[in-house]
């Protein structure tokens, strides 16, 4: 059976919880379609997350890689189309911030996701769940992990499907964090990711 | 056993479905706390909805009255605090529109909801569902029904708990309507309304 | 010549400036149509603002009263339709907060603005400035001042035009406050208020 | 004296006017810093705009190239950081739409703007005008023009400063189009672009 590396993030920027953490815990070990899911958590720390992520990729020689991140304020599930070679924005959980910095000094400006993002959106819609392709993963750690993942695979000439999916806030996050924003139940979020993995495994 | 009149609306303004219709159908006949729920549907028609609503109130002599409406674009469940004596805005499903018109020529400027809206919000939050009090029900048919309901009860010197609750779009509505906005699963919406009725029935 | 009392607020809730303060300073003493403008500033303090406002009304026996407030996040000029008998929400600048409290123990649920709000919106649009009627002034100090103003005039059987206008953020506020939101130039804001006063004075 | 090619677009997607058209007309022929501005208008037509744009670039051998586009819904001036090799989204004014299509079959995933976008944002803020860097120019014609511009310059090994700036709606557009969104006065928009060109010309 093929394996899929699925990562989520710990809480960040003052959010009390991160729904991607729970998705990854719930799906770890499950079999969906052709894949057994290996769930892993990443720290919100520019200095550590990238190295830890690459070591997860190395250890397990996965047949597919999907990273998940919280996009607080988005209304629906948004697979990302592209990662750009930039670190910029708010400080990470260690207090380190970057401005207009390159992720890879000699890397290209961007990499496209190699996930079937259009089919994933269509499958979610068919299942009654709102989704659309996003054209920016931002310039924070989510974009960094997506860029590093695709750069690493490119460097090794590996063509396994790989990419990043942003999810909206969970109801829990809104209630505990007392910040108004669109939210889904945790169950809906997890179900959506399972459906998307199902597309990956598809015919 | 006490009875509770629960109304929803048919689809309107180009939305292909109205999640309040399904909530009302699912809860019709159910017993929650002290109340048996009588679910009824209203047309999006200024000329008919109000009369039909009052006749529902008359027929059944309910011990509580809650009307539901869709607030496309809102992120969470919002019990309304106040209804104002105004009809204004987009045309209804019959094509009739009003501008700055009074609902009741000699009615007061506004009525406050007599539902325990603060306790309802707290109970939803305790159940992990985002909710907050809204201070405007708009000036369209939702506000009209809420105002008429409270005016009717006032006219009869009746003090049964009565008010209006706006709900966000359902996932289904977003997918079928192809308009991006915050959405909840239909199941979450129905559960939220049940929890709120439970508060009403409370000690 | 008739006089018009025009009030603005000092900065609040962490905003470094309040564009209504500058509007009031710029228009103080000016003559627009039939009115000479008397500009006054109010503190963001539930305990003091109301009393101070009523004393301004008393002192000068104005022929019209308009209060201005900042609605951070709104996109355009919004004359308010209605003020409700509620104090609720964030703490004021003295740290005092209220929840679901009445402004006037025996006052009605709401008062409608007696300004020509529809004509004001139309005149702004004709001048190329976006505007629309708002149906909620919130439950914070802006609503409080509007309610108190209209309650005071009602108590004295006075029928001078009176109401509240919310304005969007100014460019300056966004730049200095580092919070992203819609904004207008200060000059556009001041011009809009002058145009609205011109409507008041109209034939 | 150096020359700068400045392009705007005609109206599109049902917007009655396009504020970038007016900016370009107002600035055409003006001298700002080291540059004389050559203003040109582009059609909202995937098939024609790109070729026309490249011919403008060829004809005049400009020392800098800036394209402007309307980002309806954005709150402030947003110089774009990156253009991606994708055509996707709504139909253009000729009714042609694309989905997940490449702009250049053998082009890289993305190009970064070569304008001093950080300095431009800082200069606007210093002048009291809200601005921030945007990390997505979308996948419609604006992104297409930005990508084509940078691809063309790269192909010729030319290093003139080049990029794309999105502007918010103008007040006029909101009033004439009857769609609520953040807006600036046309004068503020034109002033902002002039300030940004001034940065380009800088020391």
UniProtKB/TrEMBL annotation, chains A, B, C, D:
GO terms for molecular function: pyroglutamyl-peptidase activity. InterPro entries: Peptidase_C15, Peptidase_C15-like, Peptidase_C15-like_sf, PGP-I_bact-type, PGPEP1_Cys_AS, PGPEP1_Glu_AS. It is found in: Cytoplasm. Its main location: cytoplasm. It catalyses: Release of an N-terminal pyroglutamyl group from a polypeptide, the second amino acid generally not being Pro. The keyword Metal-binding does not apply. GO terms for biological process: proteolysis. The active site is at residues 80, 142, 166. HAMAP family: Pyrrolid_peptidase. This is Pyrrolidone-carboxylate peptidase. The gene is pcp.
């Amino acid at each position: 059976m093929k394996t899929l590396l699925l990562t989520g993030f710990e809480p960040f920027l003052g959010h009390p919880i991160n729904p991607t953490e729970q998705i990854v815990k719930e799906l770890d070990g499950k079999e969906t379609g052709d894949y057994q899911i290996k769930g892993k958590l990443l720290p919100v720390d520019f200095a550590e997350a990238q190295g830890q992520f690459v070591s997860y990729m190395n250890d397990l020689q996965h047949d597919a890689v999907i990273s998940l991140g919280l996009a607080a304020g988005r209304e629906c599930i948004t697979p990302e189309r592209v990662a750009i070679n930039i670190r910029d924005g708010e400080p990470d959980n260690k207090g380190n911030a970057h401005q207009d910095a390159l992720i890879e000094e000699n890397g290209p400006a961007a990499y496209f996701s190699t996930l079937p993002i259009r089919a994933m959106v269509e499958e979610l819609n068919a299942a009654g769940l709102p989704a659309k392709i996003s054209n920016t993963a931002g310039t924070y750690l989510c974009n960094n992990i997506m860029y590093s993942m695709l750069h690493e695979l490119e460097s090794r000439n590996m063509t396994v499907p790989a990419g990043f999916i942003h999810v909206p806030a969970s109801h829990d996050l809104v209630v505990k964090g007392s910040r108004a924003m669109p939210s889904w139940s945790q169950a809906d979020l997890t179900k959506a990711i399972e459906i998307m993995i199902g597309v990956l495994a598809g015919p």
